[in-house]
Amino acid sequence: MTELGTHAIGSVLRIRPNVGSEVPMAHAIGREIIRAGLADREFIDRATRGFEEYRRLVEPWTVSLAVKVTGVPAAAIRELAQAYARGEPFRAFDGTEHEEDRALINLSLLTGCGHTERKGRAPFHLVRHTPPVDLTDEEYPVRLTKGRRLDSYNILLQKGGSGPPLRRTECVELSPEDAERYGVVVGEQVRVATRRGSTTAPVWVDPALRPGVAFMTGRPPESSDANQWPGRASCPVAGALEFEAAAIRIEKMPVVAIGN
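The structure assignment produced for this chain is given below.
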């Protein structure tokens, strides 16, 4: 099974698009399928509606533009399009957003895999890409995402090789590259700063994360002020209670000298 968020090509390359770019990724794949003549036109004409509108929607999403938005190499995008056209099913991220699901349904319809039990033609969904409101920059270079962590994902940690294992608490999860960049190690307390406030949390290193992306569950650690927690900020554009992705920087905590 091909996963839109993580795809192995030749069991070597692992791909994760930039946070919030799953819809552009799907659009670019759909455009490649159409331009390569791999769309199932018989199925589209017989069982779907809205194809021409969908085709116009994805036409601007060239591979070169998708590379800039998603961070995924052009060769990988083309390989994903070929794989999907061969009938390899896709699976979105766990906890995927509704718009991402609809973008993936479009790919199923495009290739004749979108079966429906109800009468009538299945519609292509005109899913628009809405980039994150809180953009990264030199001051806040890391994209913080949040979500739910399954209980099975709560790894038991052994402290110092002795004593009872510790259940992993709320952490800020970083890629190995970012942990090295900031000079932090697993278990080290750091400050997670946003444009609206900050909190502290211990570091966890997750090799599955790409550089420039961090993860937390979205709830404040017990030691933080919930009112300052970045996940509680209101979105001025959508009016949503929380940002799904915030721009952050990681700050090492000062070393406190202990007197004699």
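Interim note for the steering committee: The first helix runs from residue 22 to 35. Residues 7 and 114 are 21 Å apart (CA to CA).
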